[in-house]
Each structure stands twice: as C-alpha cells, then as structure tokens.
Amino acid sequence: LPQSALLSPYELDEELHPPVSCPLQHVFYVLLVCAGYYGGALIGQFLRFPDSHLSLIWPPTAILLAALLLAPPRQWWVFLLAVAPVHIVAQLNDAVPILGILSQLVGNCGQALLAAISVRYFVKGRLQLDSFRTLTVFVLGAVILAPFLVSGIAAYLYVLSGWEYEYWYVWRARVLSNALSTLTIIPPILMFFGGGLAKSSRPPTWRYVELGLLVAGVILAGYIAFGKQAAVPALLYAPLPFLLLAAVRFEIGILSLSLLLAAYLAFLSTSSGLGPFATQSAAENALSLQLFLITVFLPLMFLAALSSERRQRENALRDSEARYRALVMASANMVWRANAEGEGFLVSPRWQELTGQSEDDASNFGWLSALHPKDQERSAQLWKQAMAQKRMYENEFQVRTRDRSYRHFHVQAVPIIAPDGAVHEWIGAAIDITQEKEIALTVQRQRDELAHIARINTIGELAASLAHELNQPLTAILSNAQAAQRFLAADPTNLGEVRAILRDIVDDDNRAGEVIRRVRDLVRKGNFEIVPLDLETILRDVVLLIHSDAILHNVNILLEVDPAARKIYGDKVQLQQVLLNLLLNAFQAMKVCPLNERQVTVKTELQDGQKAIIAVRDCGEGLQDEQLEKIFQPFYTTKDNGLGLGLAISRSIVEAHGGRLWAQNNPDRGTTIYFTVPLCEGAI
Amino acid sequence: MKPMNPIAMDKNTVSSPALPATADVFLVEDDPSVRRAIARLIKSAGHQVQTFASAREFLEMRAGGEEAACLVLDVRMPGLSGPDLQRELRILDRSVPSFSSPATATSR
Fold first, then answer.
1. Do residues B14 and B100 lie in contact, with contact meaning Cβ atoms separated by under 8 Å?
2. pLDDT digit string (tens) for A384-429?
3. How many CB atoms lie within 10 A of CB A5?
C-alpha cells in the first residue's frame, strides 16, 4: 500500500512545541504525499472492475485526507496545490478526458477539504480513531457527509463534461468507493503516523504470532467465502470471526488492514466472476460488493473503537490502582478497610504477621483484643465516636505481637462518603511508631538524668543553708530539752512549762522532718510523671527550702499567687527544680544591690485560660540584649563556680511540660524569667 | 560596765553562771520556735528574759535607753544581723556584753 509519510504531528500547531522550521523537511513531506497520491492512483486503476470505470477503492483522495488530518490547517493549501499536477499526470496516463480530470480534481480536493474541516471542527489535537466519539465524528464527516455532498456536485460535473452519462449511478458509485477507501485506508495511516504506535512499547513476540494467525485466518476465510464459483451464501460471513478478533484484540488500524485484505480477496473473486457477488453486470457487482463491505465494516470499526476505549480505561484504572498501592505501601506499614458499620475488616497481611489474627479474628471489633489492655476501651470509644460523627479517626495504641512484646502504632482512618452522605466504607493506615517512641523515651530518660545531676549540684550549693535550716529545729529541741530538765529538777516542778516544751519538741521534730523530706524529694531519682499538682504548694515548699539562703543573701521573697492558676499538670520534683533554679539565679543577680533593695517577686497568673504563667522577677542590674537568649545555652554561666546548666535544664523541663520559658528585662530594673505550665482540665 | 568583745558562743552555754541572776537578758532571734526555746532555757536558769524578733525591733523598743546585763543575738537574721547590731550599738556607745550565736555552731 502506498502510505503517506507525513510525519509532522498535529501538536506542532499547538504552541506546545515550536513549529519545525526546516523547509527541506516540509518539502519532503509534500513530495511523499505526492508520491502516495500517484501510487494510490495506480492502485486504484489496478483494483478497477473489468469493463467499468469503477475501482474497488480509490486511495488518492483518502491519502490526501489523511495528510490534511495530520498536518496543521495552515499547511493544507500546500498539499492541495501539490497533488493537482500529480492528479492530472496520473489521469492523463489513464486516458481520462481533460474535463473529466479537472472535475475529478475539483471533486477530490473539495471532498478531502470538507472532510478535514468537519472532522477537525469537532476533534482538536491528536487524532486517533480509538474512541467512540472520534470515530463517530470521523464516520459522519469523512465517510458520509463529504462523499455524499461532494459526489452530488462531482457527478454533475462528470456528466456535464461528457465523461459519464448517468447522474445517479455515478453519484452512487463515487459515494461507495470513497466511503470504502476512507474507512480502510485512513485508520492505518493515522495509526502509523499519528503517534498511535509510539506510545505503546515493543509488543511481545506472541502478539506477532497472533497477528500472523489473524492474517492467515482472514485469507483462508476470505477464500472460503468469496473464492468458490458455486456461491454458498451461508459462508458469506466466514471472515467475520477473524475480523471480530482483529476488532477486539488489535488497534483499529490493524482491523482496517484486515478489512482491506478481505475486501481485496472479495474483489479478486468478484472481478473474475467468482463468488456470491458475481451475479450481475460488472458495475452492479462492484457496487453491491462495496455496499456489503461497508455495512459489515462499520459496526466492526465501532466495536474496535469501543473495545480500545475500554482497554484504555482498564489500563488507566490498573495504573491508578498500582500507583495507589505503591503509594500506600511506600508510606504506611499497614493498611485496612472497614465497612460502614466498622465491623467487616480487611487488613493487609502484615497485621496477621504481626498479631497472628486472621481477617475473621479482626472483624467485628476483634482487632481490639490485639491491643494492650489499657488501650482497648479508649480505642473502641474513639472508633465508635469517629463512626458516629463520620469524621477522621485518629489514635495511638500498643499492639500485642505474636512474641508477646508490644509495638506502638499511630492509626488514622477516613470515611469514604457516598453521594447520599452515608459512609460507604472506611480506609485506614497504621504506622509503626515504636522506634520514635523509644527514641523519645531515651531522650526523656537522658533529660531526667541530667536534671537529676543538676539538682544534686544545686542541693550541694545549698548545703550550708540547708544545714542551718535543719539546725534551727534541732537547736530549739535541745534548748527545750535542757530547759525541761531544769524545770523538772526545780522545786516545785513546773509541769505546765514541761508540757508546753514537749508540744514544741514534737512540732520542731516535725519541722526538721519536713526539711529532710523536701531535700530527699529533690535528690531522689524519680521517673518523669505528669500529674495534677497544686502550684501554690510547690511554690511554698521551694521558698521554705531556700528560706535560709534568702536570709544569707539578705533577699526578701514576695509571693503573689493567683488562686485561679493553682491547679496545674506537671512533674512535682522537676517543677520545684525549675523554681529553685530561678530563685537562686535571682539571688545571684541581686548581689550587687544595696541590702534593703534585694527583693524577688514570684507571681502566678492565668494565661489565655489554658496555662499558668509564673514570673520570677529580680531587681538586679538586668541582662544585656544578647544575654537574654544566651543564658539558656548549656554551660553559659555568669557565676564563678556555676555549671551553666541550670537554665538550660529548666527550659528543657518546661518544654517537656508543653510550656515555654523565656527572659525579659523589666522596664525599670532587673530581669523577669517567665515560664508556662498547662492547667489541669476543669480547673477553672 | 566594761564592754565585752562579742564572742561566738554555743547556745548550750548561754546560761553562764557568771551572769548575775537578776540581770535582764535580751534575746534577739527571728525564728519563733528557737526564740521560745532559748528564752525558756534562760528562764530555767533563773534569769528574766525579754525577746525580740529582729534587730530593728530591739533598736526601736530599747531606744529609751533601758540597759540589759546581757544580749543574746542570732547571727543570721533577715534585715540587720547579730554582728550588724553589735556594730550599731558600739556606734551608739551603748555597749553591753553581747553574744552573737551562729546557729550552725552547734552542728560542728
């Protein structure tokens, strides 16, 4: 078959790519189309029915139309002009009268142009006949409309020019020939040159085998159907199974080629007077064969377009599903699906690997039993709540594995909502966060360790003051005891005094015990534990602990406590440590002040109704601007013997409480250190 | 009376028998329970004792010029400390035998 070698893709006109501006290439394309046109004319003459002007197909017009469909519209005129001399030469060789040639030329070019315009009007961009819509446009515009209309005019011109005589016969013959040519020749050209093949990778070998079997089948069936002299009408449709195979299994271009092959076989037998169509005059035989072929081909082509469309949709769906699966597998450890009631569960195999639960075990809330007992009730509640509200479900729990260890998981699920607003199903993912949890735990343990060391260090600094604090009740007890001895020895015995003394001894002993308890609390190496606390008690405990140190530094401590900000969440010892640090720093900052001006104010109040803010304000010299942040760096110290860890650790403790710790210079003098801690829920 | 140099003394020995039994002893101590205990001890030795919670209070109450035979002072007090008070008294030339007692002394 002559083929149009017009390689310029239509997209070139669409600003996506700059137009190819190589004139030689254009000339090459135009020459190829001319060659195709000339070759097509020769084939048309070759496929002529004996004793008539009628050809089975007339390829030149179809080749010109294919060129127009592939080229941008602004280049159409070049092709139309170029084929004109070719047409004249070809037809002169065929001994057609010159008026007939001219009317043929006008008819062919007009038909190609009309078909191209009507198809291009509805289909922009790349043209492939692989969808129902495109094929419909193509059939209506190029196969029916253009040949019907143009043949009306062309037949008139033929008759007028004296080349033909019977108007309606000519019209009918021209319509059928052009329709058949368009149907069989254009799809393969579009397939080869319209980029239809480029998108698919090299097909596997068995596809070639299948193609070979198809061709063999069409030839054999064609021979059976058309080749016998004694026509057997029942076998007329023998090629149909193979054509159906081509329609369903191959590109529409391959189907067209198969059709062409079948048509050629039918032509061979009919033109030599064999087969079921060789019943009347050559001309009538030709027309009825063409009509037969067209009526068989059209539904097959639509079938091919539909099956190609379905194949594309299936591919797109498969690609999308594969992408989705890959995405899910790459991003999450475990994926699950639940029905609208949250009962039917479909979990990825990893769940069974992990827990030993089968799908049946996991459904109907069975997955709950694989959770840590302390997580079960809360998780069930959260899940039911999410289902009731049709909102995203988010949870963290521990899962008991087959080897009886536990792993932490973060779970999220979203409802798929049907158009009527009901939940269709739930899609969820569970991510193993055990490692993150372990890292967080290690970090916390290290912070606790460091905080403990810093606390011991602080207690060491306070040793002298604490000894004094402990010595006060001891002194009182001793003095009281000695006094009691004397009161008892005196005559008369002063029992009233002795009773008062014993009461005081008990109180003083308790007081000494309290000091020891507070010191022991601070020195103890406890686990970080957030519990509800009373901020005021903590504050007073710390103030009592450094009471002696305050006296030593001549510092007066003023407490301004807001009762609304009393109930907080926190770790008691670590919060005490923060307050202790801030107070001792404040004492240090006021060493430069006159004795009667050394005052530290500790003030608590509510912030945003969600946090307690604690401010420790000194009246020292204040900090330089760059120091306001620097003081929180580890090992930064202004003291002679300080570790430089106090504020760094205080900040990390406050941050572990979800709070913030920062320093600000006061408008008048000194610095205030602020920190926030979370309030107990329902405290207000 | 001849002024005595302030000496650090142990609270155990606060009831020195050298002191005349009728002498008034002034005690300045900020800690209430220590103050009460030492006052009892002095009392048990047969002395009259008057107590003050701070040096400031002592100076204000005693501004009239009433003299005591002995002053027992706490070294570590908020505001004016024991030694501060002794210095103050020397400036006022109202020297009395006085003892500044560092409470920590007993723990040594």
1. no
2. 888 888 888 899 999 998 888 999 999 888 888 888 888 888 888 8
3. 16
pLDDT at B100: 61
DSSP-assigned letters across all residues of A572-589: HHHHHHHHHHHHHHHHHH
- Cβ–Cβ gap B41/A483 under 8 Å: yes
Asked whether the beta carbons of residue B107 and residue A467 sit closer than 8 angstroms, the reply is yes
Chain A residue set in contact with B, beta carbons under 8 Å? 464, 467-468, 471-480, 482-483, 486-487, 490, 497, 501, 504, 507-508, 511, 548, 550-552, 554, 556
Whether residues A479 and B41 touch (CB distance < 8 A) is answered with yes
CA atoms within 13 A on the CB side of A160: 11
Whether residues A480 and B103 touch (CB distance < 8 A) is answered with: no
Residues of B in contact with A480 (CB under 8 A): 37, 40-41
Choosing among B34, B43, B80, B107, which should be mutated to test the A contact, i.e. which has the most A CBs within 10 A?
B34
- B78:A551 CB<8 A: yes
Give the SS3 label for residue A534: strand
Cross-strand partners of A96: none
The CB density around residue A313, as the number of other CB atoms within 10 Å, is: 10
Reported as type and span, the H/E element at residue A334 is: strand A334-339
Structure tokens at A589: 């900052």
Whole-number pLDDT of residue B91? 65
Decide if A393 contacts A428 (C-beta within 8 A): yes
For residue A498, give the H/E element and its range.
helix A495-523
Which residues from chain B sit within 8 angstroms of residue A468, using beta carbons? Answer: 76, 103-104
Q: Are A630 and A619 in contact (CB under 8 A)?
A: no
Looking at the complex, report in whole angstroms how far the Cα of residue A479 sits from the nearest Cα belonging to chain B: 5
Token code pair at residue A537: 């008690």
Q: Virtual CA dihedral for A625, A626, A628, A631, nearest 10 degrees?
A: -150
The ranges of chain B with pLDDT < 50 are 1-23, 103-108
DSSP string, B51-92: EESSHHHHHHHGGG----SEEEEESS-SSS-HHHHHHHHHHH
Helix (H) and strand (E) counts in chain A: 22, 12
Which of A468, A483, A507 comes nearest B33 by C-beta? Answer: A507
Lookup: tokens for A199: 């998108």
The per-residue pLDDT for B66 is 60
| A358-376: pLDDT as tens digits | 878 887 788 888 889 999 9
Residue closest to A678 by CA, chosen among A611, A579, A613: A611
Residues for chain B: how many in total? 108
More confident residue, A229 or A278: A278
Cα–Cα distance for residue pair A550/A628, rounded to 1 Å: 24
Amino acid identity for residue A80 in this structure: L
Structure tokens at A388: 């009731």
Task: Please give the order of strands across the beta sheet that includes B24-28.
Answer: B7-8, B98-101, B70-74, B24-28, B48-52
Chain A: residue whose CA lies nearest to B75: A552
Q: How confident is the model at residue A19 (pLDDT cuts 50, 70, 90)?
A: very low
Q: Kindly list the distances between the CA atom of residue A319 and the CA atoms of A8, A196, A336, A639, A680, in Å, as whole numbers in the listed order.
A: 30, 19, 21, 68, 52
Predicted local confidence at residue A618, as pLDDT:
92
Q: CA–CA separation, A413 vs A389, rounded Å?
A: 13
Contact (CB<8Å) A476/B76: no
Nearest by Cα to B30 from A548, A46, A604, A616: A548
Option in A464, A501, A551 nearest B40 (CB): A501
Strand order in the sheet with A406-417: A345-347, A334-339, A423-432, A406-417, A393-400
Task: Specify the pLDDT at position A229.
Answer: 59
DSSP state, residue A645:
-
Residue A344 DSSP label: S
Q: Is the ipTM, as predicted for this complex, more than 0.85? A: no
